[in-house]
């Protein structure tokens, strides 16, 4: 176990419902769901120098956010994204770092590469399972009361720091009978979680944030409170800071609708164009009729399309409600 916790009897949840989400309704589903995030793993980083090490490698300010969950990225020296991460902290010298399961070994090696003689222990937290607890868009939000009702039984538990509509991130020990603890909730599939995430407009994992290719601000790191422009040096900081201070971000990732739905896997970066044939951006991912596109901001209200071997598909871009006002 990466940190100690008080053992208490497991409790059934008493869910407190809130007012509907401010976003336009996309779903009439009123259920809360819990989904095992088998695509995400956790790394334990602990020791007297754990916070200092992470502070030098991630875009977020570890000295400001000393407790709770925070979104961040690790960059390469050229300022491009290596890994998107969520960091869970309880204060002191212990942190859990969530990353894509496909690159957990690479992420561990990246941390160890820069630890040098730091007093820190880095290891995979293989005794913890990670879950997402959420309600589809248009169905309302999870509440602080709901958070408190399960926190005592969790290794880590907090609202998703990227966008509140994504619900809770909860870590439990192996063997925990979550079906009994979360009885009022419905079990959801990983596909349902991804549908909810894509409709919300949040990219995740190396299939969408291809390592060494993507720029963090184009993937809305700043809009999701994942970067500090005041913390000083960290790996990849120079280009990110310069882009921010010049105020020039011409493209961003947005949620898209695709018609007709795309039913087969597609490669990252398929071109998206305007109806006149002018380049508009790239298709990041698609699951049926929903997906993410990296689009030029001036074309978001235009009629767009993308062409794959099976045909041409209309693309409609949406500006997420959680974006800051222009």
Structure overview:
The chain has six helices and 15 strands. The protein has helices at 50-57, 104-115, 144-151, 178-181, 190-200, 237-246, and strands at residues 33-36, 40-46, 67-75, 81-90, 94-100, 121-124, 128-134, 156-159, 168-173, 186-187, 251-262, 270-274, 279-296, 304-308, 311-317. The strands form three sheets. It has a five-stranded mixed β-sheet with strand order 8-9-7-1-10, with helices on both faces. Strands 3-4-5-2-6 form a five-stranded antiparallel β-sheet, with helices on one face. The protein has a five-stranded antiparallel barrel with strand order 11-13-12-14-15. The longest helix has 12 residues, at 104-115. The protein is globular and about 60 Å long. The termini are far apart.
Topology:
Layout: E1 33-36, E2 40-46, H1 50-57, E3 67-75, E4 81-90, E5 94-100, H2 104-115, E6 121-124, E7 128-134, H3 144-151, E8 156-159, E9 168-173, H4 178-181, E10 186-187, H5 190-200, H6 237-246, E11 251-262, E12 270-274, E13 279-296, E14 304-308, E15 311-317
Parallel strand pairs: 1-10
Antiparallel strand pairs: 1-7, 2-5, 2-6, 3-4, 4-5, 7-9, 8-9, 11-13, 11-15, 12-13, 12-14, 14-15
